Amino acid sequence: MTKILISVDIEGIAAVFERQQAVRGNPEYERARRLMTAEADAAVRGAFAGGATEVTVVDSHGPMGNLITEDLDPRARVICGRARPLSMIQGITPDHAGVVLIGWHASAGEYGQFAHTLSSQAFRRIRLNGAVVGETTLYGGYAASLGVPLLLTSGDDRYCAEVQAQFPATATVCVKTAIGMFAADCLSPHRARDLIEDAVRTAVQGHAQARVQHPVPAGADVGLLVPFRAEVEVTTQFIADGLSLLRGVERLGAETVAFTAADMREVLQTLAVMSLMGGSLQQ
Ligand SMILES: [Zn+2]
């Protein structure tokens, strides 16, 4: 049995470049979700060609109901909708052979298209044990804590550079070069799909040799290890006021709070609550 989990976001998909494409309710979004679905489908084909026996696709953007499921390879299962305890990596279990992230993006506070971490409304930057972290650090780190390797990720060049720094053994597929937050030099979506299919096939074929990596912060020699101290810079003082009400959360400054966690699951759960609260504390 070779189980592969493929989590798909929208911001790092080839030819997705502007805010409207990530927000429901307009024609550009309808186009972007088709591009997202096609890259997910390419990854599914690659996974099965590489020897996967079970593939689950996890819809991981915004309301988490973006993929046009009827257009996906019928061999794959799909996890969609929210709220979910493990959010962008819902469905992961220790018996998975590997995780693939398609269409992901750079961390909040860093360069890259659509750079954000969990919530662009709530969070300006998140540090774990002093290192700036993003969604890949958090979810890839959680998978590592279960013994599941991060096999491959795709997105823009800035995102791929982050992944290469934090998970050096993980394959990356760069489908566009970020020019700025909402501008990119993109591959043809067709070319991007071909690259993704090939690279996922190769990564899944080699899963037995893949290393389980705890993400390595910039400048450090060792991966992030428990316990974790999270420092969260939020976008407004009002959000920090609200988040400080949570048990165990410490106020470090006008727009900074902190908490400690025994493992990555606790980090994910606390940040999920903070993200939801942050959304309701918009001024
Ligand atoms: Zn997203």
Layout of secondary structure:
Blueprint: E1 3-8, H1 27-49, E2 54-59, E3 77-79, E4 96-102, E5 123-128, E6 131-132, H2 135-145, E7 150-156, H3 157-166, E8 171-180, E9 183-186, H4 189-205, E10 228-234, H5 237-243, E11 250-253, E12 256-261, H6 264-280
Parallel strand pairs: 1-2, 1-4, 2-3, 4-7, 7-8
Antiparallel strand pairs: 5-6, 5-10, 8-9, 10-12, 11-12
Zinc ion (ZN) binds at residues 9-11, 61-62.
Which terms would index this structure?
single chain, binds zinc ion, five-stranded antiparallel sheet, seven-stranded mixed sheet, 30% helix, 6 helices, globular, 283 residues, alpha/beta, Rossmann fold
Query: Could you describe the largest sheet, including whether it forms a barrel?
Result: 7 strands, mixed
What is the CA–CA distance across the termini?
A: 50 Å
How would you name the CATH homologous superfamily of the domain at 3-117 and 141-209? Dipeptide transport protein
Side by side, the strands of the main sheet go 3-2-1-4-7-8-9
* Unreliable sequence segments: none
What is the strand tally? 12
Written overview of the protein:
- It is an enzyme of class 3 (hydrolase).
- Zn(2+) 2 binds at residues 9, 61, 105, 135.
- This is D-amino peptidase.
- InterPro entries: DppA_N, Peptidase_M55, Peptidase_M55_sf.
- It comes from Novispirillum itersonii.
- By secondary structure, this protein is an alpha/beta fold.
- The chain has a domain at 3-117 and 141-209: Dipeptide transport protein (Rossmann fold), CATH 3.40.50.10780.
- 30% of the residues lie in helices and 24% in strands.
- It is built from six helices and twelve strands.
- It has a seven-stranded mixed β-sheet with strand order 3-2-1-4-7-8-9, sandwiched between helices.
- Strand 1, helix 1 (27-49) and strand 2 (54-59) form a beta-alpha-beta unit.
- Helix 1 runs parallel beside helix 4 and helix 2 (135-145) packs antiparallel against helix 6 (264-280).
- The chain is globular and about 50 Å long.
- It starts with a strand and ends with a helix.
- It binds zinc ion.
- Zinc ion is lined by residues 9-11, 61-62.
